[in-house]
Amino acid sequence: MNFFQLEVFLQVVEHESFTKAGDRIGLTQSGVSHNITALETELGVTLLKRDRKGITLTTAGEQVIPHMRAIAANLAHIEQKIAAVNGMEIGKITIGSFPSFTARFIPLLFSAFKEKYPNIDLLIHEGGYEEILKWVEEGTVDVGFAAKPVKNVEFIHLLTDPLSAVVYEGHPLSERTVINLEDFVDEPFIMLRSGCETLIEDRFLEAKLKPNISYDIKDNQTVLSMVAGKLGITIMPDLALPEKPERIKSLPLNPELSREIGLVMKSSKDLSPVAKEFSKVVQDHFIG
């Protein structure tokens, strides 16, 4: 087994495609297949299942991939250390983020980092909180942005994001200064299923109230469009709201509700040199 075969294997697993993996590392599909076959032959096990549904890990593949990712991470650490000794900065960082954070902060953070380290590649995987935490634990991403609660990862608090009631213009509640939880009970409620639903559901449970959920939607923009279309009202994080809302109005909740957003990683001590620098840039931006 050599390091290139390892990289080919990890790219196939990440992209779930021989063609996409080949495009990423400059190989034809047959070249990717040859390297995977050679790796499997040398190890004496089948690592990947190939069928009409796509490419998935075998049981053996699931058992060895954490170790392969660790080998690849250690090799990247070595390359970065040597580059630093030689006065160069090289490498890449893979970051996990959720949509509302990506839209509001990732361009600023990436630009600030690129000013200091123009030769470092920044890659982003976007998903929900659970996906991001899984990616961090598995080593698919170096660091991620997620909201509490979290477990099995290190969490560095960055900001508190309030949640607000969102109603359409002309709604009877739109003239209120605050919205109480009781006000939602008799209204069609659009539940945003992008990660904050647990916070919202727990708050209703604490108040012994039950929202009249008419729709369960994962996409922020779809929820906003449905509210604007007078299909219901909702509760959303302020980060997910447009800076210039049209046909909708956001109002504070009573009692207040918010999510705690932070930088997550397996361990700050084990981050690669460039990932540590990215962490510093992030903390400088939010914490100072």
From TrEMBL:
GO CC terms: cytosol
Residue ranges occupied by any HTH lysR-type domain in the UniProt entry: 1-58
Entry keyword set: DNA-binding, Transcription, Transcription regulation
Gene Ontology MF terms in the entry: DNA binding; DNA-binding transcription factor activity
Pfam families linked: HTH_1, LysR_substrate
Domain of life: Bacteria
Homology family: Belongs to the LysR transcriptional regulatory family.
Name of the protein: LysR family transcriptional regulator
Organism of this sequence: Peribacillus simplex NBRC 15720 = DSM 1321
Lineage: Bacteria, Bacillati, Bacillota, Bacilli, Bacillales
